[in-house]
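Entry: Flp pilus assembly protein TadD
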Amino acid sequence: MRHPMLLALLASSALVLVACEDSKKSSVSRAIDSVNAIDQENMADLMLAAGDANEAVAYFSGQVEADPSNIRNIRGLARSKVRAGRTAEAVPVWQNVIAHPEATNDDRVMLADTFIRANDWERAEQTLNFVPPTHETFDRYRLEAMIADSNQQWARADHFYETAAGLTTRPSGVFNNWGFSKLTRGNAREAEGLFTQALQHDPDLFTAKNNLALARAGQGNYNLPIVRMTQQERAMLLYTMSIAAIRKGDVTIGRTLLQEAIDTHPQHYDEAVRAMRALEGGGAG
């Protein structure tokens, strides 16, 4: 009588062991899948942040081919194409992202950014119009400011530049763009203040240094701004101010600044030398 019971118990134990073994295999499989997903996510982040831009394009192209419905892969391909300077190719990829059911308002903002890079301001504006006003992000307002600028809507541009600057811990680029906008409007004094703010946040931003030199020259102030600069940068700023002076009709000052730029540059300053020869050849003075 005991044997059937013993066999039943053994069979039951075997089933439990099999069930436990299956459960362990499932757990291990899930863990491996989880690790693979994390590895792929880390690889995607690495390719976008540090990898060679064209290598990133190749990587994400392969990922999209392997899993075409994964929005992360499509988004990565779009971003990598923008980073590689392949803007025309990036536009349709971002449009594929927007068409995806998991697309976000951030994706629409990035499509608008890509349209601006492609110099298609009208479609950039149309794209941003589909982003609800409740989506208040730095990138959105940065683009809104640039579009308002392109439309010469100055009050609107100023509002969006100011808003964007308040939404980031690194507003140097915003202040630089805002300053350049003021400069193109003929307001060199306010532009100078904005370029100075840009350099307070990023002392190495050369475009802001160059624009600051332009703003000062626009006011007839040909003294170099007191900012951190290398010897080569000093020569380049002197060159910028010299050209601005000559265009304003201050030819004697321009020639002096041009010669100083040539003397200051640590190597041969070809652009400045050509400008000096052109100036002398023209007989201006």
